[in-house]
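Appendix C: a fully annotated inverse folding record. The material below is reproduced so that readers can follow the format used throughout the book. The structure is listed first as tokens, followed by the designed sequence.
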């Protein structure tokens, strides 16, 4: 793993977490139980502290950083989608940050909220719990239903199982020259919210 000390601060990673070898973790960083850190993620605790609590996931190519002296907190089951950037913000419990979203300094996102993909959450914005916010700049457009929160939670629960699967089955290998017979199938038990089961 690409894990580095900085100015005497050494990252703390729970043994059940999975940090991909192509991710980078630097300095004053705490990574909790069953956390998934994807390849290409950059978590840089050089100027302040980053706390990633139990059950979070920080997916591929995400960046987490801050201004000097700031602590960034991802509460339990925060879900940071592919390519998102978190800079000096507080992310509530069971929040989903959509793909390629930017969340700026001094932002506070309340529990059980969803920020839509490619949104820009400007400095100092407070988003109440159970909100759906989208756009550039982001605006709260509605309160989330129990169904929407349950869908988000189910997706995060998949990611909470992923660290163990990665520890047990992810190996560097040579590619096959052709598919093997009886190649396994992937499960199909989680869908985009509006899609119905076939």
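Designed amino acids, in order:
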């Amino acid at each position: 793993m690409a894990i580095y000390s900085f100015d005497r601060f050494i990252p703390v990673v729970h043994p059940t977490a999975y940090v991909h070898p192509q991710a980078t973790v630097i300095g004053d960083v705490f990574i909790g139980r069953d956390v998934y850190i994807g390849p290409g993620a950059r978590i840089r605790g050089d100027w302040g502290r980053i706390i990633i609590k139990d059950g979070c996931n920080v997916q591929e190519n995400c960046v987490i950083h801050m201004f000097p002296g700031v602590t960034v907190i991802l509460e339990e089951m925060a879900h940071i989608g592919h390519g998102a950037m978190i800079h000096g913000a507080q992310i509530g419990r069971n929040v989903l940050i959509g793909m390629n979203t930017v969340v700026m300094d001094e932002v506070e996102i309340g529990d059980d909220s969803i920020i839509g993909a490619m949104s820009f959450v400007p400095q100092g914005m407070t988003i109440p719990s159970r909100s759906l916010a989208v756009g550039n700049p982001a605006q709260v457009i509605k309160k989330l239903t129990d169904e929407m929160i349950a869908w988000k939670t189910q997706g995060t629960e998949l990611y909470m199982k992923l660290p163990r699967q990665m520890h047990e089955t992810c190996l560097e290998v040579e590619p096959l020259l052709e598919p093997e017979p009886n190649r396994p199938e992937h499960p199909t038990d989680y869908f985009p919210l509006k899609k119905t089961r076939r």
